Amino acid sequence: MTQHENAGTWITIGKNSTLDVPSDPTIGFIEGDGVGPDIWAASRLVLDAAVAKAYPGRKKIHWVELLAGEKAYRSTGEYLPERTLQALRQCVVAIKGPLTTPVGGGIRSVNVTLRQVLDLYACIRPIRYYPGIPSPVKHPEKVNVVIFRENTEDVYAGIEWPAGSAEAEKLTMILQDQFGVALPAESGIGIKAMSRPGTERLVRRAIQYALARGLPSVTLVHKGNIMKFTEGAFREWGYKLALAEFQEQTLTEVELFEKYHGVVPTGQVVIKDRIADNMFQQALLRPEEYHVLATPNLNGDYLSDAMAAQVGGLGMSPGANIGDTCAVFEATHGSAPKYAGMDKVNPSSLILSGVMMLEHLGWTEAAECIHSGLERTIAEKIVTYDLARQMGGAREVRCSEFARAIVERLG
Ligand code: NAD
């Protein structure tokens, strides 16, 4: 992107990896497929209004559109043009709508490719309850957790070959001849690799996040009882990292009960771990005991949707993909193609992803403004179809009307 096309000022990365954010930052946006254009238009309206309200005449975001997904394919013949990747690196901060990935057929997910190419290794998903939102559980207000999901490794890395391919046959032979492992005939093969550095940087961020916000625990979620050298190693490396880098500020669950009678000392974080299947149970039975979860890629994907359901579903679930040099904010849900162009779905997930983005910039006043505007709108039972159908006496509004209602109620 040339300076001519950019009316704002670039965000840069300063000393100690902190962001230098100008008052007129250039921020990239990808509209997204399916419901993307609807929820992006709604989110942009709310984000711009909140910044104008919190910092009148002093701060303003300069949005620049970056092409990806179906829109990019229509104009360039590529789903993820190199120009978009370069612009994302230059912008440092960006926000995106959901992008469609056809099931099977060999087309790689643009979402997954973005995370890998830009090394956005931490997928951060805060899950909290907004009063008034319909929920399938009795006490949704007990859920207030932030999931740190590893974003680049595990079976998601895309190291896989179809059954019958030359690569799968060759690997099958190597396993048979050199390791004495016999695979069932006609096996597709995927490789699950999880590294120590990959685990450490994710767990480091999770612990730093808990310490910065005074949260009392970080839980390592894994399936290490079965997959010992990947998921089990994730647990072991996580504990070792806490001990090596945060010894003064962290303690184990055993220490918590033996030394402190179960009460977490101020300024300290308990590091604990749970096997993934147990964690799904805990999420329903004792959600208040969990604050930050650090998970491998696949566990985190399942768990974040399941926990989001407890507080109102995918329409209320924001997310961020963060690396050391770039951050891309996006809703947890997909492109919901059957609602495309209907101005119908709930834009809260993308709006709340925008709130995370404002917090990332350090523009917390604008973020707070949106939080209270959203809370008021929901408390007045002005909601989109997904919530209206479960709430008695609600006023159902379109996606764009919901955004305007928030703008009228900004804190
Ligand atoms: P989806 O999240 O798009 O939709 C599933 C259902 O959830 C919808 O039919 C709808 O009932 C509900 N829903 C989703 N978003 C909503 C919203 N904002 N408001 C109200 N209800 C909402 O999941 P899917 O149908 O499995 O996937 C559709 C496409 O999206 C696929 O191509 C998939 O690969 C892609 N996807 C993209 C991302 C991403 O861009 N990060 C994430 C997940 C899925």
Structural key phrases:
411 residues, alpha/beta, 11-stranded mixed β-sheet, two-stranded antiparallel sheet, 14 helices, 41% helix, binds nicotinamide-adenine-dinucleotide
Explain what this protein looks like in three dimensions.
By secondary structure, the chain is α/β, with parallel strands linked by helices. The chain has 14 helices and 17 strands. The strands form four sheets. An eleven-stranded mixed β-sheet has the order 4-3-5-15-14-6-7-13-10-12-11, with helices on both faces. A two-stranded antiparallel sheet has the order 1-2. It has a two-stranded antiparallel ribbon with strand order 8-9. Strand 14 and strand 15 form a beta hairpin. Helix 1 (36-54) runs parallel beside helix 14, helix 6 (196-213) crosses helix 7 and helix 9 (276-285) packs parallel to helix 10. The longest helix has 19 residues, at 36-54. It is globular and about 65 Å long. Residues 98-101, 111, 314-315, 330, 333-338, 345-346, 349, 386 line the site of nicotinamide-adenine-dinucleotide (NAD).
Mean pLDDT: 93
Number of strands: 17
Unreliable stretches covering 5 or more consecutive residues: none
Structural class: alpha/beta
Which percent band covers the strand fraction? Answer: 15-25%
Cα radius of gyration in angstroms = 22 Å
Ions, cofactors and other ligands present here are: nicotinamide-adenine-dinucleotide
- N-to-C terminal Cα separation, in Å? 35 Å
Separate helix tally: 14
Anisotropy-based shape: globular
- Major sheet, described briefly? 11 strands, mixed
Q: Helical proportion?
A: 40-55%
**Numbering strands along the chain, what is their spatial order in the largest sheet?**
4-3-5-15-14-6-7-13-10-12-11
